[in-house]
Model the fold of this input.
Amino acid sequence: MKLKVDEKPFLPEGRHVVKITEVEEGKSENKEIPFINCRMENEDGFVNQRFYLSEPGQPILAAFLKAVGIDKKEVDSKELKGKALSIKVEERSYEDANGKEKTIKQASHFEAIGEADTSDRY
Done:
């Protein structure tokens, strides 16, 4: 059997410099909360990260926008594509709405390129 793989692997845990290559808009499956999903990648792999457009999600989105160099109150999600930043990739487990435990890779600790501490201090 021949196997053909047209996808990069998930980025391993740790700090990475990435570029935003895709931005999709959507709503959460259970509560209909709007979000943007950003695919961030480099030559080693990729990670997808949802940013919920809710009050609790505002500080996370603000840190992300600051890291990509956007310092305004309102931004079109299309402006994010092509921006670069430094992220920390980590795994997180949570219980979904059906009570099942899920583990995902997520991006966090957003920093502008050149400002990120590459040590594993988090």
